[in-house]
Amino acid sequence: MEIVVNNIINIFTVIDGKVHILLKNNKLIKIECNDDIETINKKYIEENLDIENLSLKQFYTFSEKQDNKLIINILFMDIVNYNSIKLADDLSLIELSKLDIDKKYLDKCLETLRKELVLNSTIKKLYPDEFSLPEIQKMYEDVLDKKYDRRNFRKRLIKLDVIECLEKVSSNKNGRPAKLYKFKDIVEDKCLF
Fold it and tell me: Which of 94, 111, 176, 181 is most exposed, with the fewest beta carbons within 10 Å of its own?
């Protein structure tokens, strides 16, 4: 039986509080693997993607039989700030909820994202400079599919001592300006929710 191994690279970002995934030619980034998987990924990234500080982690493996072949898909991921992605002509970002792929694959992506996004180091990658608490709260509610009380959400972040107020306000055109915050430069990774 022939064995086919594919690396599937999943690069996620958040735009307007919604999680997006990077696609190549409107498809998942799939690389046929005929060498060391890490070497293949590194070479592909260097030659095809212009993304700063990309650090892929293997998060799941799917396998299935097809036409007397064993297909093994190894999933890798990273979450990056939208501004660090330079889109080439063949690259695009699509909202994860609008991606038309196998449900078991999408569920695994969401499960992994939910685990990653509760860590302050991951959120800091998405919001490295300044943000408003409503902005962060909206992203959490969308990804975790859970509603948070505005006051309790704010108290939780302040209690964990992971953010600091910048004494600036957002230039929000759709309502009242919100205070801006940034993540502290802390070494310890904390689970936010």
Answer: 176
**Whats the size of the chain, residue-wise?**
193
Give SS3 for 150. helix
The top-level CATH class assigned to 2-106 is alpha beta
150: Cβ–Cβ under 8 A, 6 or more apart, which residues?
A: 133, 134, 137
Domain assignments of the chain as residue spans, ordered by start: 2-106, 121-183
Give tens-digit pLDDT for 138-189.
888 877 778 989 899 888 888 888 888 888 887 766 677 888 888 887 757 7
Q: Which residue reads 């650090």 in tokens? A: 55
- Which residues neighbour 96 within 8 Å (Cβ) at sequence distance 6 or greater? 12, 18, 19, 20, 21, 106, 109, 110, 113
Average pLDDT over residues 61-85: 88
Kindly report whether the global pTM for this prediction surpasses the value 0.85.
no
How many whole angstroms from its chain centre is CA 84? 12
Let me know: does 190 contact 160? Beta carbons within 8 Å.
yes
CATH of 121-183, one of 1.10.10.10, 3.10.450.10, 3.40.50.2300, 3.90.550.10: 1.10.10.10
Q: Which secondary-structure segment (H or E) carries 66? A: strand 57-66
pLDDT at 70: 93
Quick check: 178 and 134 in contact, CB under 8 A?
A: yes
pLDDT at 173: 63
